[in-house]
């Protein structure tokens, strides 16, 4: 909770700081950016509402045990591949992805596989692409970024295998 | 949007058939609380993006984060993503603002990837408590080179996909 509070303070502090810079440039710049930001906000809220309220239901339908089962202990590159697919398919917010990773680690999943899973989930969880990235950014950029990101869970797993567990 | 709405509707029905109306309302209340909690941050993110688009000098951004910014541009993008506060509601509007003021796909990819893999916001709030410090630090170490690599790959592919320099 306190961590979230610190993040909020930094976030609003940054908003205030850039707002001050805008104001010093001229009050017109401040009001026009405020209007721009507020319009973005109004446009985005319905999508965020659908995303946040919907994701709980989608997550509830896909049981976590199925995802962790795929990660399998010491499953090698096939395990990494399934981990990447599972990561992309995992719905829900930050709690879900990290919790699945934690469960997989505890139930004997290989560390490279769990790293691949967490990174794939962080980079291109399908639901997040649709609900978060597409509303905020040009769709072309989102798909391009996701495509470019594809190799990296594998790269991370390879590094993890080379470095070994801590 | 429609696809997602249908997906959500189907999920609601499935939850309802499995857990009854109490299961549905329990998830709904939890999600509503979450929604209320992040709403102010969404606003902060939108304002931050709008201000950044307004106050950053376009030529400077184009020079330091544009197509010809080289490794330095990717490193700046990575550093920026790592220190950017807040969640997706901040990172994506800001990334979008960077694109409009002249950053190229490569540097913006480096920023988004760095935010998602290295950014401390998530780590402090979620990953540390759930996965533990050891795993987090180990994963962080492995993730460090990835934003720059992803940005470089993005730039490499982009130049070949759009050789005439089409605007995104």
Structural class of chain A: mainly alpha
Low-pLDDT parts of chain B are none
How many strands appear in the DSSP assignment of chain B? 0
- What integer value in Å does the Rg of chain B equal? 19 Å
Count of separate DSSP helical elements of chain B:
8
Number of helical segments of chain A?
Answer: 9
Low-confidence stretches of chain A are: none
What is the quaternary state of this protein?
heterodimer
Order of helices and strands of chain B: HHHHHHHH
Order of helices and strands of chain A: HHHHHHHHH
Q: Can you summarize the main beta sheet of chain A? A: none
Q: How many distinct domains of chain B?
A: 1
Greatest chain-chain interface? Answer: A-B, 80 and 80 residues
- Radius of gyration of chain A (CA) equals 20 Å
Q: Strand percentage of chain B, roughly?
A: under 5%
Describe this structure in words.
The complex is a heterodimer of chains A (166) and B (168). By secondary structure, chain A is mainly α. Chain A has two domains: 1-45; 62-163, no CATH class. Chain A is built from nine helices and no strands. In chain A, helix 5 (94-106) runs antiparallel to helix 6 (111-124) and helix 6 runs antiparallel to helix 9 (152-163). Chain B is an all-alpha fold. Chain B has one domain (42-161). The relative contact order of chain B is 0.11. The chains are: A mainly alpha (166), B mainly alpha (168). At the A-B interface, helix 1, helix 2, helix 5, helix 6 and helix 7 of A face helix 1, helix 4, helix 5, helix 6 and helix 7 of B.
């Amino acid at each position: 909770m306190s961590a979230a509070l610190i993040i909020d303070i930094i976030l609003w502090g940054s908003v205030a700081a850039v707002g001050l810079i805008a104001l010093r440039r001229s009050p017109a710049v401040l009001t026009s950016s405020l209007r721009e930001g507020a319009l973005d906000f109004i446009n985005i809220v319905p999508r965020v509402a659908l995303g946040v309220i919907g994701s709980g239901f989608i997550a509830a339908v896909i049981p976590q045990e199925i995802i962790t089962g795929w990660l399998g202990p010491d499953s090698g590159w096939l395990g990494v591949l399934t981990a990447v697919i599972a990561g992309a398919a995992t719905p829900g917010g930050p709690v879900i992805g990290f919790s699945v990773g934690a469960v997989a680690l505890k139930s004997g999943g290989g560390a490279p596989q769990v790293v691949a899973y967490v990174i794939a989930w962080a980079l291109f969880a399908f639901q997040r692409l649709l609900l978060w990235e597409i509303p905020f950014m040009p769709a072309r950029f989102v798909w391009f970024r996701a495509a470019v990101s594809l190799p990296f869970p594998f790269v991370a797993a390879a590094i993890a295998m080379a470095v070994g567990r801590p | 949007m429609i696809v997602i709405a249908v997906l959500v509707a189907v999920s609601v029905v499935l939850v309802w058939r499995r857990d009854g109306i109490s299961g549905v309302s329990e998830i709904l209340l939890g999600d509503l609380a979450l929604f209320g909690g992040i709403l102010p941050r969404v606003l902060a993110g939108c304002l931050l993006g709008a201000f950044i688009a307004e106050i950053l000098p376009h030529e400077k951004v184009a020079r330091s984060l544009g197509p010809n910014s080289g490794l330095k541009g990717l490193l700046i993008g990575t550093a920026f993503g790592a220190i950017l506060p807040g969640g997706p509601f901040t990172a994506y509007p800001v990334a979008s603002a960077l694109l409009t003021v002249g950053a190229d796909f490569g540097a913006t990819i480096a920023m988004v990837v760095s935010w998602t893999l290295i950014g401390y916001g998530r780590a402090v709030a979620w990953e540390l408590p759930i996965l533990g410090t050891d795993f987090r630090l180990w994963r962080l170490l492995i993730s460090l080179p990835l934003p720059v690599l992803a940005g470089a790959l993005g730039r490499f592919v982009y130049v070949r996909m759009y050789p005439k320099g089409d605007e995104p």
